[in-house]
Amino acid sequence: MSEKPPLTCKQILKQSPYVEGLNANTDLPKFRAVVLARKRELTAANPSAGEVSYVEEDRQIPVRDGSSIAVRIHKPKSPPQDGCPIFVVYHGGGFVLGSLETETLLCRKFTELGGIAVNVDYRLAPEHPFPTPCHDAYDALKWTAAHFEELGGNPKKGFLVGGISAGGNFGTIVTHLYRDEKLSPPLTGAYLSIPACIPPETVPEKYKSLYLSREQNKEAPILNQGMIDLFEKHYSPDPTSNLRTPMLFESHAGLPPTYFQICGLDPLRDEAFIYEEILREGNGIKTLVDVYPGLPHGFWSWWTAADFSVKFQEDCVKGMKWLLDQSKK
Q1: Cα→Cα distances 166→22, 78, 196, 219, Å
Q2: pLDDT tens by residue, 243-267
Q3: Quick check: is 238 catalytic?
Q4: Which of 121, 128, 139, 165 is catalytic?
Q5: Can 193 be counted among the known catalytic residues?
Q6: Which residue among 61, 123, 160, 231 sits deepest, i.e. has the most Cβ atoms within 10 Å of its Cβ?
Q7: What angle do CA 251, 255, 256 make, to 5 degrees?
């Protein structure tokens, strides 16, 4: 028997529609609850084989305005005697959605590689607009660096940072801030999955002809231009601040090796491709890229059992392993 051809995105949407996104009339608390439930389904659909191999602890850490935020520390149940690499993780959600539950699966997968994940519950817009979420993200990174050994980390094994979508935006920014402050231990890798990193007004002249996906995919499923506009309204970023985009830093030299995941049907597609090329060709940064042609932003959260989502989860592990390998060089 011949194999069935893979389903197209339109066929998948017809069989298994996703939850409609935000609009001006959305009840935000209710929508956050829907997204949380979906993320818990994703985590449950990817159970660990055999006995649970991790432990998890929630802690409050101080941030610059005198308040505190939560982090969830995911550790191997039996960590190596000589310590672990550490990965600071920022969830996605357009700066408006998400929680400590959002990237549970990614964090647990990192513990299976012998690492410790620090999962950051940065504060969200519109209750806490720009720059508070980015400040929280960077403060959590610096807190982790200051408590590296206490957490059970060994910096020689790796110190990674990054996230998904809005969390990827933070990943692009905090790597520059950390470099500029010359902090230690040094970052050894950045994990940028479907990052929002180059707003239209900051695209370099040489790349403007390649910045097509905001228009091509403006009506895409899951994330479209209307949702981007609404997220921007809630987040209310300062377009002149380098806490908004890495493009406003003077240099991109000296950044750590970077792993990218990019979706073909994503309005954010081309900014990720452009940023990757700037790092690799313009600054000699090692990069690894996984591309998901024809698939929309964050597809794996909505069609968890699909072959392409299974591959995505495998790629997450491969990408983290690659970053850890770079840490040893």
Answers
A1: 15, 32, 6, 19
A2: 999 999 999 999 999 999 999 999 9
A3: no
A4: 165
A5: no
A6: 160
A7: 170
